[in-house]
Specification:
The protein is of the alpha/beta class. Helix content is about 50%, strand content about 10%. The chain is globular, with a radius of gyration of 17 Å.
Length: about 150
């Protein structure tokens, strides 16, 4: 309840959806999928299904009305999934301060290098300034309205 918002970088997808879990597959595709799921469980101790941050947000009471700034690279293969997730989040609550910054020519994890330190700092600072200090001019100039009351 004390978390007002977050900046989240990359991978805002439901991993089951990305992997096509439950969809008809060939035997080889099923073996590869099973291997990926097993490797994740062995390395983390968790089922790969926990990789569903937006689903987790949707399931928690009181989450709408908190800020979420998604930072994503234009070269990430799951970018369309991130865009669908953003649309779902925005449909939850009109006052939900949410945006997806697509960093040009960035792959997964390469946001700071592709955008540069000054631009990355400008974007993230605008989010936190609006979220915590009600100084929303920079945020609204870039992303429009939708600040938290």
């Amino acid at each position: 309840p004390d978390v007002r918002g977050a900046v989240a970088e990359g991978g805002y997808h439901n991993m089951y959806e990305v992997m096509g879990v439950g969809l008809p597959r060939t035997l080889i595709e099923n073996l590869i999928q099973w291997g990926m799921q097993a490797a994740y469980r062995l390395n983390t101790g968790d089922d790969i299904g926990v990789l569903d941050p937006v689903g987790a947000l949707n399931a928690l009471p009181g989450v709408p009305g908190r800020g979420l700034f998604l930072v994503y690279g234009s070269d990430e293969p799951s970018l369309p999934g991130a865009q669908r997730q953003l649309a779902r989040l925005k449909s939850l609550d009109a006052a939900f301060m949410t945006a997806l910054w697509i960093v040009p020519e960035a792959g997964h994890g390469g946001y700071l290098g592709a955008a540069g330190e000054a631009e990355y700092t400008r974007q993230v600072t605008a989010f936190y300034d609006c979220l915590f200090f009600a100084r929303c001019e920079a945020w609204e100039a870039q992303w429009g309205t939708g600040k938290i009351n």
